[in-house]
């Protein structure tokens, strides 16, 4: 059974290298033995070719098929890698609660960083336009970028303006992760007790 599981993960890993990556601890891909730390090197060489964007809601890999969680490419709005969680056929209520808590945390985090990054890009663009107009007047076309010193003013101002927001985010993030760790420990303990019976 274990060899079939590893073989399925190997086949799926070959198929999904460009899209979603299984996270099940499989140690073989196409018959070669590799440590988990070497997995990033298994991605196909692409040269300067861009990776195509993936709609996370329509992933090419189904976690149910590979029987483990799958991690997708970075989202273009939040820059976070979306995880699709595996649902075991005999999922206990505690395991379901843990999976749903992780899903909720991921959705909250995704939403925060999508909004934050959109706000950052908008404010950065506004700053650049205003500063270019101040420096060059109507001859903006001559110079389209600002120096690193000019941009450092924007970065400092942005961080200062969003200091309270970041503190609030960190507090909430710690709470959610503490809850997830507690649930993970309870699931682990439940599994240990069940295997000893």
Automatic annotation (TrEMBL):
<comment type="similarity">
    <text>Belongs to the COA8 family.</text>
</comment>
<keyword id="KW-0999">Mitochondrion inner membrane</keyword>
<dbReference type="GO" id="GO:0097193">
    <property type="term" value="P:intrinsic apoptotic signaling pathway"/>
</dbReference>
<dbReference type="Pfam" id="PF10231">
    <property type="entry name" value="COA8"/>
</dbReference>
<dbReference type="InterPro" id="IPR018796">
    <property type="entry name" value="COA8"/>
</dbReference>
<protein>
    <submittedName>
        <fullName>Cytochrome c oxidase assembly factor 8-like</fullName>
    </submittedName>
</protein>
<keyword id="KW-0809">Transit peptide</keyword>
<keyword id="KW-0496">Mitochondrion</keyword>
<keyword id="KW-0472">Membrane</keyword>
<dbReference type="GO" id="GO:0005743">
    <property type="term" value="C:mitochondrial inner membrane"/>
</dbReference>
<feature type="region of interest" description="Disordered">
    <location>
        <begin position="29"/>
        <end position="57"/>
    </location>
</feature>
């Amino acid at each position: 059974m274990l060899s079939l599981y590893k073989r399925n993960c190997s086949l799926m890993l070959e198929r999904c290298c460009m899209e979603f990556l299984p996270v099940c601890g499989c140690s073989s891909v196409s018959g070669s033995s590799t440590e988990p730390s070497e997995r990033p090197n298994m991605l196909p060489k692409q040269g300067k070719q861009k990776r195509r964007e993936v709609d996370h809601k329509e992933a090419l890999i189904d976690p149910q098929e590979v029987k483990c969680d799958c991690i997708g490419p970075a989202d273009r709005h939040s820059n976070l890698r979306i995880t699709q969680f595996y649902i075991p056929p005999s999922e206990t209520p505690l395991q379901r609660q843990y999976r749903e808590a992780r899903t909720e945390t991921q959705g909250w985090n995704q939403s925060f960083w999508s909004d934050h990054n959109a706000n950052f890009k908008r404010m950065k663009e506004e700053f650049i336009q205003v500063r270019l107009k101040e420096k060059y007047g109507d001859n903006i076309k001559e110079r389209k970028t600002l120096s690193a010193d000019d941009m450092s003013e924007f970065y400092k101002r942005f961080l200062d303006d969003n200091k309270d927001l970041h503190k609030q985010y960190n507090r909430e993030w710690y709470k959610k992760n503490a809850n997830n760790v507690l649930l993970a420990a309870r699931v682990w303990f439940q599994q240990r007790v069940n295997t000893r019976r």
